[in-house]
Automatic annotation (TrEMBL):
Keywords: 4Fe-4S, ATP-binding, Iron, Iron-sulfur, Metal-binding, Nucleotide-binding, Oxidoreductase. Its EC number is 1.18.6.1. Belongs to the NifH/BchL/ChlL family. One of its GO terms (molecular function) is 4 iron, 4 sulfur cluster binding. This is Nitrogenase iron protein 1. Coiled coil: none annotated. Its cofactor is [4Fe-4S] cluster.
Length: 268
């Protein structure tokens, strides 16, 4: 079973990328589970045709005898969707949501299949963002970033976390690469490729900004489902293929802030 985690700054497009990636894996006949860990708990919404599924944390507050059907919902392509959930924005759960989710899924023996995709917020706002990496769940991390300084900054912070956690025996996380989710900035592809090189990794996919994404979202679907023949759907299929073939996993070296800013200036 491959356990793949997408990390990145809030609002960078992780959930869109994760959901399309899961849909592309499912299209290949793989048994896929997607677990969202984000205070917005909307990671799996497009796979669920706009439905906000109840979160594990919410369900646990209500009752103790949870069954699989209470927390695992089947979405597009048979993808099993789970939302770890979280508290009110700004309060933070220090990882309780995601820990409880892992424990429950393990107890139910439901953490299985060909691929588990974790969609995890990369800002350190909720204090639990390292959990999937720390406890050996997320073995391959992909950073989702644009060329904007703040999203590179968040990606760089996650590199620090991977490097630190890789020293622990329970953590097996390694960086698989960087996904550039374009904001249509000048020189963005070159900037993110160079950032990837400097941290000791590589850019595995450049995802262009495309209105197919918005069109799919307003129709409450992934691009793979809404516009399967579009070039954007092929971009996500390409990403899925690259990830499946990728065995080049590294411990990254984070940049210091001066280096990061200098890099961003050089590509303006
Ligand atoms: S750690 Fe908790 S609050 Fe943070 S995103 Fe995950 S479930 Fe939500």
């Amino acid at each position: 079973m491959r356990q793949i985690a997408l990390y990145g700054k809030g609002g960078i497009g992780k959930s869109t990328t994760s959901a399309n990636l899961s849909a592309a894996f499912a299209e290949n006949g793989l048994d896929v589970m997607q677990i969202g860990c984000d205070p917005k708990h909307d990671s799996t919404r497009m796979l669920m045709h706009g439905r906000w599924i109840p979160t594990v944390l919410e369900q646990m507050y209500e009752r103790k005898d949870l069954e699989m059907d209470d927390v695992i919902f089947t979405g597009f392509g048979g993808v099993r969707c789970v939302e770890a959930g979280g508290p009110e924005p700004g309060i933070g759960c220090a990882g309780r949501g995601i820990i409880a989710t892992f424990q429950l899924l393990e107890k139910m023996k439901a953490l299985n299949g060909d691929v588990v995709v974790y969609d995890v917020l990369g800002d350190v706002v909720c204090g639990g963002f390292a959990m999937p990496m720390r406890d050996g769940y997320a073995q391959e991390v992909y950073l989702v970033t644009s060329g904007e300084l703040m999203s590179l900054y968040a990606a760089n912070n996650i590199c620090k976390a991977i490097a630190r956690l890789s020293e622990r025996s329970t953590a097996r996380c390694r960086l698989g690469g960087v996904i550039c989710n374009s904001k249509n900035m000048d020189n963005e592809r070159e900037l993110v490729a160079e950032f990837s090189r400097l941290i000791g990794s590589k850019m595995v996919q450049f995802v262009p900004r495309d209105k197919a994404v918005q069109a799919a979202e307003v129709n409450q679907m992934t691009v793979i489902e809404h516009a399967p023949a579009s070039p954007q759907a092929d971009v996500y299929r390409g990403l899925a293929k690259t990830i499946l073939a990728n065995d080049d996993l590294r411990i990254p070296t984070a940049l210091d802030l001066d280096e990061l800013e200098k890099l961003a200036r050089a590509y303006l």
